[in-house]
Design brief:
GO molecular function: ATP binding; double-stranded RNA binding; L-threonylcarbamoyladenylate synthase; tRNA binding
Strand order of the largest sheet: 1-8-2-3-7-4-6-5-9-10-11
Bound molecules: threonylcarbamoyladenylate, magnesium ion
EC number: 2.7.7.87
Helix content: 25-40%
Catalytic activity: L-threonine + hydrogencarbonate + ATP = L-threonylcarbamoyladenylate + diphosphate + H2O
Strand content: 15-25%
Subcellular location: Cytoplasm
Keywords: ATP-binding, Cytoplasm, Nucleotide-binding, Nucleotidyltransferase, Transferase, tRNA processing
Largest sheet: 11 strands, mixed
Length: 341
Amino acid sequence: HTQFWSVDKLDGEETLSPAITEAGLCISEGETVAFPTETVYGLGADATNDNAVDKVFEAKGRPGDNPLIVHIGSVEQWGDLASVIPEMAQTLADSFWPGPLTLIVPKKQTVSEKVTAGLSSVAVRMPDHAVARALINAAGVPVAAPSANRSGRPSPTKAEHVLYDLDGRIAGIIDGGDAGFGLESTVVDCTGEKAVILRPGGITREQIEAVLGTLNVLESGKTSDSDAPKAPGMKYRHYAPSSPLLLVDNEMEEVIAKERLAGKKIGVLAVDENKTKWEPLVDLFIPLGSVDNLSDIAAHLYHHLRLADESKVDVILCETFSKSGVGSAIMNRLEKAASGS
Ligand code: TXA
Ligand code: MG
C-alpha cells in the first residue's frame, strides 16, 4: 500500500505541513517516497542507508550499475558528499543552485558505493522546489533520488504518472502538482579539466558557457564506447513508448502515406500550428504546444509520450526541433525514445 499525500505549493509554508513531516520521517526510517521537483518527480531514499537505496533500485527495476543523484536541501550538505569541490563546480553551483543542474564531483569515502554504482564520483543537485527542499530538510539526510518512473518509462511529471508506474512498490507519494521544467536536470561532469555536459536539461549549454566560458565546456555528444561509462544512465534506452516512435524531419506527409499504405494505425506528435495539416490524415493527433514556446513543449513532453503510449496505435511519428537552448534537451529525450529511428 502506497501512502498518498497532497501538498499545495505555497512558498515556504509546506515546511510546516504535517504531510512533509510524515514523509520525511518515512525517508529517515529507510523507506522510499516520491516527491515533486522543478524538473520531474523523484523517488527519494536516505542516501546514507544502503538498504533504503536498494529499495529504490528494486522499485524502479533499475540496473545496479546506474548511479543515483543525491539531492541536498542546503549548500552546506555538499561538503558531506564531495571530497573536493572543483572551482568550476563551485561557480556553477553559485550561478544555478537551487536549480535543474546536477554536478558530478569526486566523492567522499563515506558516500555509499550503492549510490554511485562503484564510481569514485558523486552526482549532487539542490532542487529549486519548496516541497522537495522541505522534504530533504525534514528527512535530515541527503536524499538519493532517480526519476520516479519504472525503468524504461518516460519520467513522471505528475503524481498520477508515479502512481501508474509505482503504486504498491513504494512507501509514499507527495503530490505537489505538475513538475515545472518537465525534463530532467542538466548533468555536468566537473571531475576533469573542462566541464563536460553528460546530459542536456533544464540549464542550457548556452547558460553554462556564459559563466564558464565557451572554451571550458565540452559536450559528451556521441560518446564512443571508451567514455560511455561517464554517464552510465545514458546508455540505456530511456523514455521508450511501447509502439515504435519515428522522428520525422521534413517529410511527414510522405511518411504518413507510407505507413497508411502498410495498414498501420498512426499517431502523430506535432506542434499546435500543424494540427490542421496532420490531424485529418491520421488516427491520433497529439498537439505538443506552440512552436514559439519550447519551454511549454518540454513541460508536457513526457505526458504526451505517455498518452501516445496508451493509445495503442501501431506507429508514432514525431516532429523534430532545433537543438539550440531548450531544444537540445527535447531532442535528446526524443532521440532516446526513438532509439535512432
Ligand atoms: O532532474 C533530475 O535530475 C531528476 C530529479 C528527480 O532530480 N533525477 C534524475 O535522476 O533524472 P536519474 O537517475 O533518472 O538520472 C541520473 C543520471 C543518470 O544518467 C546517471 O547515470 C547519471 O545521472 N549519474 C549519476 N551519478 C553519476 C556519476 N557519479 N557520474 C556520471 N553520471 C552519473
Ligand atoms: Mg531517469
